[in-house]
UniProtKB/TrEMBL annotation:
Gene Ontology molecular function, alphabetical: penicillin binding; peptidoglycan glycosyltransferase activity; serine-type D-Ala-D-Ala carboxypeptidase activity
Official protein name in the record: Penicillin-binding protein
GO process terms (BP): cell wall organization; peptidoglycan biosynthetic process; proteolysis; regulation of cell shape
Keywords, alphabetical: Carboxypeptidase, Cell shape, Cell wall biogenesis/degradation, Glycosyltransferase, Hydrolase, Multifunctional enzyme, Peptidoglycan synthesis, Protease, Transferase
Gene3D superfamilies for the chain: Biosynthetic peptidoglycan transglycosylase-like (1.10.3810.10), DD-peptidase/beta-lactamase superfamily (3.40.710.10)
A GO CC term attached to the entry: outer membrane-bounded periplasmic space
Superkingdom of origin: Bacteria
Domain Penicillin-binding protein transpeptidase positions: 324-568
Compositional bias of kind Low complexity: 627-647, 699-714
Amino acid sequence: MTFIILGLSGLGAFAYLYSSTDLPDPNADFQTNTTFLYYNDGRNQLGSLAVQNRVTLDFADMPQVMKDAVIAAENRSFWEDPGFSISGIARSAVSIATGGELQGGSTITQQYIKILYLDSGQRLSRKVKELFLAIKIGREMPKEEILEGYLNTIYFGRGAYGIQAAAKSYFLKDAKDLTVDEAAALAAILNNPAGFNPSGGPEKVERLLGRYRYVLDGMLEMGVITDAEHTRASAQLPEFPEVPVNDRYGGPKGFLIKSVEDELIAQGFTEAEIQGGGLKVVTTLDKTMQTAAIATAQKYTAQAAADADGSPDAAQLHAAIASVDTGSGAVLAMYGGRDYVSSSRNWATTDRPAASTFKTFATIAGLRNGFSLNSLFNGDTFTPRGDTKTVRNEFGWEYGPVTLRQATAESINTAFVDMTEQIPDGPNEVIKAANDAGAPRSRGWDANNRIALGAAEVSPLNMANAYATLANGGQRHTTHMVARVEDRNGQVLYEAEATPEQTIERNVAANVTDALTSVVQEGTGRRAAELGRPVAGKTGTNGVDDDITSAWFVGYTRQISTAVMYVAGDSGNEDLDDYKRPQDRTFFGSSYPLMTWVDFMAQATEGMPVEEFDRPQEIKATKGSVSASPSPSRTRSASPTPSPSESPSEEPSEEPTPSEEPTPSEEPTPSEEPTPSEEPSKPGNGQGQGQEPAPSPEPTTSETPAAGAGPGSDPGDKLPPPKAPDLGPSPSPTA
């Protein structure tokens, strides 16, 4: 001990610190450690995490098997050691003297001190106090009292503190009724409740099994179980019954609370700190916007079910809303479903085919690779060189040569396939643009000439963030929901910082935004103009065979980017047409998704200043044909091939221009790919002909055919136009 005393400035200092260190009340600082979650104003409460679930037991009432199991797991020399490791204390003294962290806190006594008496700060005074508490408690407190306090306060996961709450939470029984294998399992779990969570999947169960056997080995070594008990219990983990979910997660807010928990863990907070550390967590969520998201999503899902033919189940129609601050990546609102308890799938973070909303990324790729918004592409049906599948626009419409601006506004399939083929390594350039914007690669991202048409799956949250990058001048942020974390004393433990990265060229982002304003001003998303401020956006409707499996609107103002997605069924791959409006031929992205977006954004932007987008500088084309006049508005002519039944039109709009994009499933050979999903999707090649998709390495995902025609052309109210004016020479489709 001489080294320690000298390291702490002599015997006198040691004696003074020892005598002035009082033993705190074992329960004083551990009664009110509820973690509270707040909206971004820091005042309105979103929820709370684990008001400590504890039933205190006297030492005599604690089952001996649980005492033995915990000692075997955490500190086999507990009954003999002085409460601390001498070598560990020596390391601590050196570490304290050099400004490092306290070392050697592995005994039950030291764990008890850290859990019960001290905060998680790294101040020198706290480290010294912990050291002297360990020495003093080890000398002055009976071992039985230390173990009793430890077993009543240690965190076991699932919001359970102490062995009684743990027994209830994991095995639905009192601690006194625990068996050898159940006690050993709980003792194993307490070492790392998140890492050894028996409900956390096969990998965590396997890790738990290893730790469980370690505990049983210790119990045998200590002589507290027999060889027969050891052999029987070691064979496998005990059965963990289904435990009812706490209603704290009930309703739509459960998705938010779970997302906050996950983000806190990702930021390095332990489960014990989150569930019982008395934290104040201020989120980025705006209470007014979140209320609007819930009300709007539930309003339109109910309306769709009520107005549709055949009285479909409203509970099987899922609307997802994700809204992001374009300048920081802060999540302002998120609606993932009606009730987290009844179904924990968060539709706002679930990937589904992005349909024509993915064409935005092809526009980025085109502008990066020598084209401009005035570049001309083939707007007519054609078969790419070396391909076996014809590319068509919905209803067989023929547009002639079209500018990239018009192709974006009217979501013209053939033009995007033509452009992708003309870009060197075009499919991968489109994928790179999507990744640069903030859409991570997922299912259906096959690098083929139809990649722009939207078989690629993206979640609403990631799509909102990708479009936010465009609104933010090409600077990408990482989405986050936690703004600030404070301990129970108000000390800030974590604060989110904006770390923008310029991933898309600023003028490219401005030009793409300019093109997307055409969608709102004259194309498929005109309803969004009702917002009365500059808006850019894109509709999307995905079809597989005769089914519509996802429908979208993603749009943004300068300040907020919001994605709305509709899917149906437990898998999110069922046919949305059961919920289409009576006047519609199918479930369009410009119907309920756009209606939902406008309703939500009207409330979200109320009172915000009207801000203009960046003014784009014209990008001059360095290749291909260019329109003689800047970005002309072109009309289309109907193909002679489709029959009337193959050309559904959407509800007529106030202007004789389209309000939606073509849907591949409505024409004889629509340009569509099967929808990859987490659940088995319906067979077909997206061309309405029932071709079997290529085998998938994953049994739950339909693979996109290598040269498939790709989804993404959304149906709309297309009125047969007059003959289009001449725009100059028509570009030849290239391969």
